[in-house]
Amino acid sequence: MRDAGLLLAAHGERAAGADNRGVESLARALRARGVAAEVRCGFIKGTPTLAEAVREFAAARILVLPLFLADGYFSRVRLPQLLDPAETGRSVEILPPIGLHPALASLVARKADAACAAAGTDPARTTLVLVAHGSTRDDASRRATEALAARIAAQGRFAEVRSAFLEEPPDPAGLLAAARGPVAVVGLFIGEGLHGREDVGRLVAGAGRADVVTVGNLGAWPDFVDAVARAVA
Prior knowledge:
Helices cover 40% and strands 19% of the residues. By secondary structure, it is of the alpha/beta class. It has two domains: 4-99 and 224-232, Rossmann fold (3-Layer(aba) Sandwich); 101-220, Rossmann fold.
């Protein structure tokens, strides 16, 4: 990768009070590790745009890592449109979305296990709930989340592993209300925008249960840098 540039392509945030510091921090951490000759980030919504970021590279070869859970509309359709050579003046290679990387299951399971231990909760009695965005127009988010849940369940650490979605059933509130025994909640969000910063916390608070362990959002974990570095390598 010493002769290549790495572009972290994220959805980004433009809403009031939102920012893209999580993705920018990830780019700095990867840059410090020397995973590529150059590491930059660009956003579908936010600045710099993807085209602006691509034009800043000095490297002749540019790899693009989509910071998405699934190979859905944004990674399959929107990214190629926005990174068209006619728009950027450069040719790029788009890697599979980070959410499809095999290392993710072990990372999520390990973080949930540690959060349960810190809360004095037995993971073997705990239902792990993975909260993702979901979509009523594209099933890619659901399929990716369910595949991740199946890989974690196969490790046998938790009583049950369930998927829940903000924009399609099953909804997180319903799962939290119906779960028997302790629950651990993981937000499958890369950035700390509206969904990552507010929605997951609001859902946990609204459950009104004292036995819910909040594991946090995937993109905010320091360990997430390791998973991204392995995906790029």
